[in-house]
Amino acid sequence: MHELLLYGQVSKGRHEQVVKILAGVAAMQPRRVLKRHVVYKPQREPEEPGLVNKRGGTQSIAAKNTKQAGKTDLYFTQLVQRLTEEDFGSIVSTEQALTVEGLPKWTYEFNDLPEAGNRGGALVRMTNSTDIVGGDPHAYVTSLGNQFVSEYYIEGHLFVHENINIYLHRVLHEPGVRSLETEPKQQLPGFDALQPLDPSGAYMLEAKVRVQDINNTAVTEAAAEELRRFKTQMKGCVTMNIPDRLAMDTRIRYRPQVAQPPRKPAQPMTAR
Amino acid sequence: MKYSGLYFIPAHANASEASSTIFHSLTESIERQFSTTSPQNFWTLQHRLLRSNAASNATPAPIKPEPTNPSIKPEPTSAAPTPTANPQPSTSSDKLISITPQSQGTLITIPSAQTESHFAFLTNKLSPLWQFRHALQIPHGVVYNIGQFTIHMGEMKANRPSGSGGSGNLSPGVVVCVSTEIGEGSDGDVRMGNDGYMALNGDAMEGIRGDGEDREGEEEVDVSDAEDLIRDVWRTMRTDIDFGKAEVREVMLGKEGVNETQQSEATVVRMWCEVLRLRG
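^ inputs. structure came back:
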């Protein structure tokens, strides 16, 4: 599935006002959203880019080209857990109570690098989301070959306007907790213990339209048109833009292993 | 509580019609031996196997660059069986189960509507980690009800990715699943889930059995009884059928699945995975 996206920023002071404006635009009460994102990365390290071309110089005569495996990237993936206000401060294991209000609690999400070149004024990226209705999501994702990286929380409001999901949210995290964890926490911190990742407390406004088949130009064009209309609607209130696509890159970076320079034995200084 | 045994009859690789022949002879045998029965609903199953692509140098922070050809270890890994009973418009969403058996295996349940997208994600985006091996399906299984027994039977079709010289559609064999009720299972809630396994409340079982400790012992006995019953049914079914050189594989439902509703689904899935493993 693909998404068309536009983003804007809302400062903390204007948050209340923007919520009211969006409620008016979407003609619905804001729906409170609380989520926990658990970030995973593959246990494998990525290969050095360009290495694919360096190897393979053989002397064999007329060897048929074996099917070159395309260089595929490794990505960060996420497990997203839907939360309610009561969950904070309580023990929530990954296996417990897998549905909340009929909606699946855990979702395994993947976002690809957004495409270069926008389609009619919106950022496009491929995404996959799998709801996990039974079993242990963390154990599953780990046995797929991933390892836990970190987790963070999102609080915000969701509005639905025609086909656009309008998501006004900001990222919260537990300050001071560093990466010694190997699995998502069993006990969630209290809501007051969380602080915004952005110290100014600003919110992000995300307008998203999901498209099943990106190659269907009629549908994609209609989606882009809706986003453009939303952008003009919000003009003066929030400026909606296309962000830098590389800022939304979920690929794992290759980290070259730096060889230690050989240590020279200390040379005695000879005075001349 | 439903207890099952699975039988897998491999078909001879060269004879493409072999498994159809086996399937038909089994069908005839059932209809002959148990004359009061007739085929009921159909059922289908989809099983996809992926193998992990672990790089041979798995230790972190090596000084040399990682070996560039990921070696495929001979460890069967992720499989995704989907027993669905057609045509059952069941509202239960948990149909696809994705499992990565290592020692015990990790199991999750995802909605069947997302099967394809999740599988596409695994093969495309996680392709450095997982490679598609083959897909097995049972497109037209038949169901027979014989008294307390239910027999699900189907002919398997395999689909390998092209290019490794295998023919497109093989038929690895025929699968027969014999299920029977054990214990006082006719009361209690009957949830017609994806394969009709009953979900009894723990309370209902308590009421029937009384003392918890006795229950353990009784269940043990019942399980072996059930196994014998199932084997008898199988023997009756296969009289007069010659499977040739094929060795029939038998897999019974795991013992720990008894009396636990949540786990019974997991054990059912593991049973199917066990049978469908080592195929191809």
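The two ends of chain B are 33 Å apart (CA to CA). Chain B is about 30% helix and 30% strand.
thumbs up if we can close this ticket
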